[in-house]
UniProtKB/TrEMBL annotation:
Organism of derivation: Streptomyces asoensis
Domain WYL intervals: 807-869
Identification of the protein by name: DNA-binding protein
InterPro entries cross-referenced by the UniProt entry: WYL_dom (IPR026881), XPB/Ssl2_N (IPR032830)
Classification via Pfam families: Helicase_C_3 (PF13625), WYL (PF13280)
Region annotation (Disordered) ranges: 136-155, 454-482, 523-543, 783-803
Residues of the Helicase XPB/Ssl2 N-terminal domain: 582-704
Composition-biased stretches (Low complexity): 455-474, 523-537
Superkingdom to which the source organism belongs: Bacteria
Length: 875
């Protein structure tokens, strides 16, 4: 039923017929490459073909072609319709038949066929009409090939007499009509020997004019009285007028001058990404692991700085420039780096706005859980969030389309291409031998070849035309170079995060991509130059390049989770073990020779100030830092015992004296709330305070020999007395000493921001199988041959049958007895009409129960909703 003959399969007459001749694997490849085609699932292959030819879908498909496949499509756009394979080969490889182009052309043509941009056999290749309209040259939208209109197109409005003059000028016999005259002129311009003989007669300066127009743009300006060199060309049709004062070089003439090539420089082979330097893989892994630990400490330091509530949220959303600068100073990094760490914490779900009336940024409850995990697992969470995030910190400080400033944590930072670019850059690094680092410009050149319409040269004609997209619209410079900027940011951020080390992909970075790590036999040479792996080795299918398969795409979520866990396992033994000791020095400093265990680090951060960071962290003890520890409830004896327990060196005498001296004075003065008061058993000390000129701003007076009252609040009084060198302690209304500890401010539970997808997601295998089955079933219903009700009223394809209720019932009952399939028209409760192929099983109570071939399941239909029924023709 409805089978196609072998001849029909060889020579499809439409894109729908070509799709109908594909097997399920080929259809799945098309839907995987162009997922917008099954959103929603088409009802049949005719609708799929129609959707594949829409402007939006074709533009998107063209944007995902590599440079050589795009050049092939551009060549087909200037070829005949249909074009033979030999004609296309001549346009791509030229008269000399470039061997590299000839070898690569079948693969490029197969890619265009797979994406349903080209259909037909090698004798009649057809570019989808919408793609031809987008890529074909016109006066408004010059072709990227630099070619102009054909002779037939350029002479469409020319008078018959003028056409005959052109024919006579080149030595051809006159004809009886303009059509045959244009055909004769075209045949001359496409005949290599005759055209060479004609040009041999041309003046040298006329040939110079042709040389300037040969590679485009093909249009030029002339005056009302053109020079002799131009007149010679105009008289022979080598230049043709298109508008007053404008001439064009016909396509056939340009192709002769170019020796048949549509492109000045075909690029059949992607630019190589070769190693620039090679390091030992162990050095790369160690460097990356050290940077991974630095990333963890940086994120911790950021959120610890915002522990009691971070900076306020701008009215328009995001972080102010001033607060970003403060954060950069606190982290000791540049502002772009600060924006990266802030956005990374946000993408990981560790940071959010608190949603209060006075909205501020703060850590989320997830941050407390994150702190309790092993370091490798904490890094894995950051790395996975970075890999999938569409929010891009690199655009912070720029402007959106409405000229509004883009701020960190604010709106407008999503760039949907970011995850795909990150995966592709890392996949290119994974294709190199272990320990090898490429040059950044080589990576960018490769990406531009793989996505020319999305790269820095997006849509630009190589012959000096303005930047244009595939639809002819001019693109802005920001849109042109976004993909390259994303790639540069990826290289920088991967190094900051510890995915790469010294520019090379680490072993845990490979695992993060789902790449199988190479075995390193014991005793084998470590030098990367000895590694035999080449580009693409050990890469999974979704990471192979255009030369070997599809361009890298993000892993599905379950596979990415497994890859992230594998990366954490590889990283864990490389991370430094936290230490439980410091080295105390006589200059009131302590040196932590490595990362400290959390309880030790927490206490030391209160007791001392961080003076410098790096491989070793230096802490400095000051009266203020010791007082901070005492305010937190520690006693002098507690501090002495803590330092003695965690120091590998004896506690220096100056540090012991500092602790005792601050502790002796700590709490001697008591500040409480009247407005505020100070009480002290030593009235001489109160006299000293009153006599100090710096106390004037506190406006104190004596209430009793041991009590002073102030006209400022207790917090200001505490701060003022401490600035004067005293160590007061706050007390409650009951007279008890208040212990001050930092208040941890947390948001309510917040989910990490969802990435903004770059179009519809790639369908998984289950969805593809179901979609193809539904499309096939719908196509069966739409194309199954029907037996006409009578010889005078045959049913047209797609027309719903119309029969009376009695005839419908009788035909259904007969089909139950014979087991034959029927074709019905059906209108559902929403009024939507469809056609179906069913095999009736039972008819009763006004319903027919049948096996629906279209839905591939048993269904029940009300008879009153069936518009008509027809028998299927015998195959």
């Amino acid at each position: 039923m409805g089978k196609m003959s072998t001849e029909d399969q060889r020579a499809p007459r439409s894109l729908a017929a070509a799709l109908r001749g594909r097997d399920d694997a080929s259809l799945a490849a098309l839907l995987r490459a162009r997922p917008d085609l099954i959103t929603p699932v088409p009802t049949d292959l005719t609708q799929l073909a129609t959707r594949a030819g829409t402007r939006a879908s074709v533009v998107r498909a063209l944007e995902r072609l590599d440079r050589f496949a795009l050049q092939t499509a551009e060549a087909l756009a200037v070829a005949g319709d249909p074009a033979a394979y030999d004609e296309l080969l001549g346009l791509m490889a030229g008269d000399a038949r470039d061997a590299a182009v000839a070898d690569a052309l079948p693969g490029a043509l197969a890619a265009l066929r797979e994406q349903a941009l080209v259909w037909g056999d090698d004798g009649s290749l057809r570019l989808v009409r919408t793609a031809r309209e987008l890529l074909a040259p016109s006066a408004q939208h010059p072709s990227p090939t630099g070619l102009g209109p054909s002779v037939r197109e350029a002479t469409a409005g020319m008078s018959p007499g003028r056409i005959q003059e052109l024919v006579a000028a080149v030595g051809l016999p006159s004809t009886h009509d303009s059509v045959s005259a244009v055909d004769a002129l075209t045949a001359l311009f496409t005949h290599r020997k005759k055209m060479a003989a004609l040009l041999a007669q041309a003046p040298a300066d006329s040939l110079d004019v042709l040389g300037r127009l040969m590679w485009g743009p093909p249009y030029g300006q002339i005056t009302a009285d053109p020079a002799a060199r131009l007149r010679w060309l105009l008289d022979r049709g080598l230049l043709l007028p298109t508008a007053p004062g404008t001439v064009v070089l016909p396509r056939e003439v340009a192709l002769h001058l170019r020796e048949g090539r549509a492109h000045r420089a075909p690029e059949p082979v992607p630019p190589a990404v070769d190693p620039l330097v090679a390091h030992r893989p162990q050095v790369v892994d160690a460097t990356a692991a050290g940077q991974a630990y630095t990333a963890l400490t940086t994120v911790e330091e950021l959120l610890k700085d915002w522990h009691e509530g971070g900076p306020p949220v701008l009215r328009a959303g995001g972080l102010s420039v001033r607060d970003l600068k403060r954060t950069a100073v606190a982290l000791d990094v540049s502002e772009p780096m600060a924006a990266f760490w802030v956005e990374l914490a946000y993408a990981s779900g560790l940071l959010a706005s608190d949603g209060e009336a006075d909205e501020r940024y703060a850590a989320t409850p997830e941050y407390d859980e994150w702190l309790e995990r092993p370091p490798a697992d904490r890094w894995a969470q950051l790395a996975q969030a970075w890999l999938a995030a569409t929010r891009t910190s690199g655009v912070v400080g720029g402007r959106d389309l409405k000229e509004r400033a883009l701020s960190a944590l604010g709106p407008g930072l999503d760039r949907s291409a970011a995850p795909e670019v990150r995966h592709r850059v890392l996949a290119l690094l994974a294709g190199l031998p272990e320990g090898a680092a490429p040059q950044a410009d080589a990576v960018l050149a490769r990406l531009r070849w793989e996505r020319p319409l999305r790269g820095p040269q997006a849509g630009q004609a190589p012959q000096g035309q303005g930047p244009q997209g595939p639809h002819g619209a001019h693109t802005s410079q920001g849109e042109e170079d976004l993909r390259s900027r994303l790639a540069r940011w990826t290289l920088t951020e991967a190094e900051l995060l510890g995915v790469t080390g010294r520019g090379a992909l680490s072993s845990h970075g490979r695992a993060l991509l789902g790449v199988r790590p190479a075995a390193r036999p014991a005793g084998a040479a470590d030098d990367a130059a000895q590694a035999p792996a080449g580009p693409g080795d050990k890469l999974p299918a979704h990471h192979r390049t255009a030369a070997a398969g599809p361009v890298a795409t993000p892993l599905p979520q379950p596979e990415q989770a497994a890859a992230t866990a594998a990366a954490a396992r590889l990283l864990a033994p490389l991370l430094p073990e936290p230490l439980d000791h410091v080295l105390l020095q006589a200059d009131l400093t302590a040196v932590a020779p490595g990362p400290l265990r959390r309880p030790l680090a927490d206490v030391l951060n209160v007791l001392a100030d961080v003076e410098s960071k790096g491989g070793a962290t230096v802490y400095r003890f000051t009266p203020g830092s010791v007082r901070r520890a005492l305010d937190a409830g520690r006693s002098a004896s507690d501090l002495h015992a803590f330092l003695a327990e965690h120091s590998r060196t004896p506690v220096p005498q100056p540090l012991a004296y500092l602790i005792d001296d601050v502790a002796r004075r700590h709490g001697h003065l008591r500040v409480g709330a009247a407005s505020a008061y100070v009480r002290c058993d030593d009235d001489a000390l109160l006299n000293e305070i009153l006599a100090d000129k710096r106390a004037a701003a506190l406006r104190m007076r004596r209430l009793a020999p041991t009590v002073l009252a102030a006209q400022v609040d207790p917090a200001s009084l505490l701060e003022g007395l401490r600035a004067m060198g005293f160590a007061p302690a706050a007390e409650s209304a009951e007279g008890d000493v208040l212990i001050t500890r930092a208040h941890a401010h947390r948001t309510s539970p917040r989910a990490a921001p969802e990435p903004v997808p770059d179009g519809p997601p790639v369908p998984d295998g289950t969805l593809l199988t179901a979609a193809i089955r539904a499309i096939r079933a719908g196509d069966l219903a739409a194309t199954a041959p029907r037996k006409p009700a009578d010889a005078t009223a045959p049913l047209a394809p797609g027309e719903l049958p119309r029969t009376g209720s009695a005839e419908t019932l009788a035909t259904m009952q007969a089909a139950v007895l014979t087991g034959e399939a029927l074709w019905i028209g059906y209108v559902n409760a929403e009024g939507t009409a469809s056609q179906r192929v069913i095999a009736p099983v039972r008819v009763e109570g006004g319903f027919v129960t049948a096996y629906d071939h279209t839905a591939d399941e048993v269904r029940t239909y009300p008879l009153h909703r069936i518009t008509g029924v027809a028998e299927l023709a015998q195959d």
